[in-house]
Amino acid sequence: MAKGEKRTFVPGRVGVVGLGLMGGSFAKAAHQGGQEVYAWNRTRSTLELAMIDTIDGELTEEVVGTCELIILAGYPQVSVDWMRDMEGLISPGALVIDTVGVKRVICDKCFEIAAQHDWTFVGCHPMAGTQYSGYAHSRANMFHGAPMVVVAPDDADDFERADVLERLKALLAPCGFGSFTLASADFHDQQIAYTSQLAHVVSNAYVKSPAAQMHKGFSAGSYKDLTRVARLNAPMWTELFLDNADYLSREIGTIIDNLKAYKDALDSHDAQRLEELLAEGDRLKKEAEKR
After folding, report:
1. Quick check: helix, strand or coil at residue 69?
2. Helix or strand or coil: residue 247?
């Protein structure tokens, strides 16, 4: 089929680009839910492994146009590059989503590409995962009960946003998401700098203390909770951090200021100030949980 030729998708058919933790989990959930799943992956051995029990075949140029839903589950630049290469092959009416942890850098580019065609791109971020990466750690229930953040096209009106959201919910029903939240790309990146990226930075920095090498026998839940995401995919998180450098740097600056206040109180043996700081953190945590 030549680029530009009219295509008709097969209802419910899913194409997954990238079979890492996220892509593999989407593929397994869709397969378990009875959907046809085709996939592309840079490493051939992973694709062949998935063909054994999860996917129905390879997401070739001939298959792209038959998919109603295409999920871009690679690194930000890989996802954008694949979309540029295949933009003329995607079927009119199809939905294309991504799973990237930052939204401005990918939505700006992908909305511009999609605007030239009769298919729709929707920015998505499934709020689920583990400290491990790769297809071997993916699972069909990865997203059960998890929130999904959705960034609709900037030029869409309220009716179009509602229509896209309902269609997306139906296509992703096998994933079992607990909620779908509409947001702008900018607000998403502000929030994710705090809720996810800062947590990874703090955890990764925390284990650089010499004391970490001697923690056995002296650590319990607190240590495990704070160090869980110190293990990470460094190349991927480097790209994500740099794509959101402005908001992440601001959050790091805020936590540095807050930590300095605790350090100053300790250095001066100011019990009253230290207690105030601790009580303030306890109060703010409780307030945040009520929202």
Report:
1. strand
2. helix
Q: Hey, what domains does the chain have and what are their CATH numbers?
A: 10-183 (3.40.50.720), 187-290 (1.10.3660.10)
120-126 vs 147-151, strand pairing mode:
antiparallel
Are the beta carbons of 151 and 164 closer than 8 angstroms? no
- CA separation for the pair 127, 125 (Å, rounded): 6
Distance separating alpha carbons of residues 230 and 207, to the nearest angstrom: 7
Per-residue pLDDT of 96-151, as tens digits, reads 999 999 999 999 999 999 999 999 999 999 999 877 789 999 999 999 999 999 99
- Measured between alpha carbons, how far is 28 from 274 in angstroms, rounded to an integer? 49
Separation of alpha carbons 51 and 47, rounded Å: 6
pTM of the model: 0.88
Alpha helices in the chain (DSSP H): 21-32, 44-53, 61-64, 76-86, 104-114, 158-171, 185-192, 198-206, 221-227, 234-243, 245-267, 271-290
Amino acid making up residue 29: A
Q: How far is CA 273 from CA 19, 123, 201, 281, in A?
A: 51, 44, 27, 13
Cα 143 to chain centroid, rounded: 11
